[in-house]
Design brief:
Length: 249
């Protein structure tokens, strides 16, 4: 009997975040999850901030993550299509994973057809109202000139600076984000604005570090994937519906 193929979505693993020991424990748990979904997955979408920091020098990438990267390669070799989105922590992802495992790298949004259902996917950073400071920084950090300048730093210095910065991030300090309400969550506001001119059956985001699943309209739903520090949540398309689930090993 043939197993029905599913499509999986997850985000915000933040591999490499401080403290390192917790990141390694999280990596092993993610690998268990990837082992689990391998049996029925046709596609895997990792919707940003897979790494707490990532920069691809011409001959160097950050060390570590060997179990995770090896498992991704195993899934790719098994014929599972892998798509990675750039997040605000790993926006400097270029061609390395495309070359090594055939992954598709998405800069911003992706419009996906799920058996006739339209789906809008984005990491979620820089969308909606407010956060003007970050939106300016995003344009600077994503510029080819900024990337060229950072590449001039020796990897020990460049990655070292990023790792020290990571110790002060919200994920390293396990800051507990609160749901602001449907009228104040900027990703919900952003999705509702889109719906004024373009219909989507589903919106999928990461970035906000808690999971939620909300009906925007009778025929449109928004899903925030959460993170893998506290929640271990992901979404799965079973061919008919898209829903949040929680991983329990």
């Amino acid at each position: 009997m043939q197993i029905a193929k599913k499509i999986y979505f997850a985000s915000d693993f933040h591999l490499g975040s401080y403290p390192k020991e917790q990141s390694e424990i999280r990596e092993r748990e993610i690998v268990k999850w990837l082992d689990h979904i391998k049996q029925d997955a046709s596609e895997l979408y990792l919707v940003g901030d897979v790494f707490d920091f990532w920069f691809e020098y011409s001959t160097v990438v950050p060390k570590g993550y060997i179990r995770f990267l090896g498992k991704l390669a195993e899934l790719a070799d098994a014929g599972i299509k892998i798509t990675l989105f750039k997040g605000n922590h790993d926006m400097w992802m270029f061609g390395y994973l495309k070359k090594e495992i055939g992954a598709t790298i998405i800069d911003n949004e992706l419009i996906l057809d799920l058996n006739g259902k339209s789906c809008y996917i984005h990491h979620g950073d820089g969308l909606g109202p407010g956060d003007k400071k970050y939106k300016i920084l995003k344009k600077i950090f994503r510029s080819s000139f900024c990337q060229w300048l950072f590449a001039r730093l020796h990897p020990n210095l460049g990655i070292g600076i990023a790792q020290r910065w990571s110790k002060h991030s919200r994920i390293s300090n396990n800051n507990d984000e609160k749901f602001l309400g449907e009228d104040r969550e900027w990703l919900i506001q952003y999705a509702n604005d889109i719906l004024h001119t373009q219909h989507y059956d589903y919106f999928i985001f990461g970035h906000r570090h808690f999971p939620y699943e909300i009906e925007l309209r009778k025929d449109s739903k928004i899903i925030n994937l959460g993170e893998w520090i506290n929640y271990y949540t992901y979404a799965v398309w079973d061919g008919q519906t898209l829903n949040l689930q929680r991983w329990n090993s």
